[in-house]
Amino acid sequence: MKTVEKSGKTIDIAIEAALAELGVEREDTNIEILEQGSKGIFGIGAKDAVVRVSMEENPDGAAIDFLKKIFEKFELDVDIEVEQGEQFTTLNLVGENLGILIGRRGETLDALQYLTNLTVSRKYQEKHKYILDAENYRKKREETLEKLAKKLAGKVKENGRSLSLEPMSPYERRIIHTVLQDDPAVRTFSEGEEPYRKVVITKKR
């Protein structure tokens, strides 16, 4: 639970200051009035109101609320299933015709994932890791990249020439690196600047 105390000329002003610092709506908090405050006489002896505002930390709820607002704006009927993992939480988007949320080579899905992580991290001022998936796209893409990595590694071994893959997200580059990290004949590294950074497969000397 995260708690802040704020003061203001009125209780409402103090509450608004606390809500602004927490970055939440009033209905998502518990509010305790510590000092009612008083105007005094002709301003003499005036005291500020003091409140304590507490927020239950619920990063999953914040992530889901953020996504639902986007889906509602575009009139998309999408359910969100939460799958907890040791290193990250997967948010599976379930519905019909979700291609619009996946985009070309997952670009839209990656953008939504980035914004979700950014929103939750800012709200709770600590890093939370979410992976967004739709229609099992991530798993299918992972399998495709694994096959591609092995195929291109075979070509590098055969002719000895290095090969560069297309620009990929950090998540996809990591898949390529992981698939080939134990291959005794080739090595991989990334080059370039985001968002054009790509993996290079080269023969070990």
- Quickly name the level 1 CATH class of the largest domain: Alpha Beta
CATH architecture of the largest domain: 2-Layer Sandwich
The profile of the biggest β sheet is:
3 strands, antiparallel
Query: Main sheet: which strands, in order across?
Result: 1-3-2
Over all CA atoms, what is the radius of gyration?
Answer: 25 Å
**Helix fraction?**
40-55%
Distance from N terminus to C terminus (CA atoms, Å) equals 55 Å
SSE inventory with pairings:
Blueprint (H helix, E strand, L loop, with lengths): L1 E7 L2 H12 L6 E7 L13 E7 L3 H15 L5 E6 L4 E6 L4 H4 L4 H18 L5 E5 L2 H23 L3 E2 L5 H11 L5 E6 L6 E6 L2
Parallel strand pairs: 5-6
Antiparallel strand pairs: 1-3, 2-3, 4-5, 7-9, 8-9
Description:
This protein is of the alpha+beta class. It has 3 domains: 2-55, no CATH class; 59-135, K homology (KH) domain (GMP Synthetase, Chain A, domain 3, 2-Layer Sandwich), CATH 3.30.300.20; 139-203, Ribosomal Protein S8, Chain: A, domain 1 (2-Layer Sandwich), CATH 3.30.1370. The chain contains 6 helices and 9 strands. The chain has helices spanning 11-22, 59-73, 99-102, 107-124, 137-159, 170-180; strands at residues 2-8, 29-35, 49-55, 79-84, 89-94, 130-134, 163-164, 186-191, 198-203. It has a 3-stranded antiparallel β-sheet with strand order 1-3-2, covered by helices on one side. The longest helix is centred in the last third of the chain and has 23 residues, at 137-159. The protein starts with a strand and ends with a strand. The mean pLDDT is 88.
